[in-house]
Design a protein that fits this description.
Blueprint lengths: L2 E5 L2 E3 L5 E8 L7 E7 L6 E6 L5 E3 L7 E6 L4 E6 L8 E9 L4 E4 L3 E5 L2
Parallel strand pairs: 2-11
Antiparallel strand pairs: 1-3, 3-8, 4-5, 4-9, 5-6, 7-8, 9-10, 9-11
């Protein structure tokens, strides 16, 4: 059984920081590309960040310089360090594990991030 469990969400003031975690089980974690997506109410789900099995990273332009994705293969966990948070970062953040070769694509349940005064 594949399971992705996000944690670390919460309420933070603009300019604050938050670190999201996603713990994976049921997959060979080290060979998967890991992603973070987010979805705000009334908006489409948006890709935020990627880290490949080789630890190459990419980010959506709106978070570049503020967010950092990382992974700890020994812990089967991917992280999203979120700094200088803005109200427009408010969304449910979802962890995704993808392996294109086999078409595998798994999702967590999401964790709420609210940036507000």
């Amino acid at each position: 059984q594949v399971q992705l469990v996000e944690s670390g969400g919460g309420l933070v003031q603009p300019g604050g920081s938050l670190r999201l975690s996603c713990a994976a089980s049921g997959i060979i974690f080290s060979i998967y590309t890991m992603n973070w997506y987010r979805q705000a109410p009334g908006k489409q789900r948006e890709w935020v960040a990627t880290i490949t099995s080789s630890r190459l990273t990419n980010y959506v332009d709106s978070v570049k310089g503020r967010f950092t994705i990382s992974r700890d293969n020994a812990k089967n966990t991917v992280y999203l360090q979120m700094n200088s948070l803005k109200p427009e970062d408010t969304a449910v953040y979802y962890c995704n594990a993808a392996r294109a070769l086999t078409g595998n694509d798994f999702w967590g349940q999401g964790t709420q991030v609210t940036v507000s005064s």
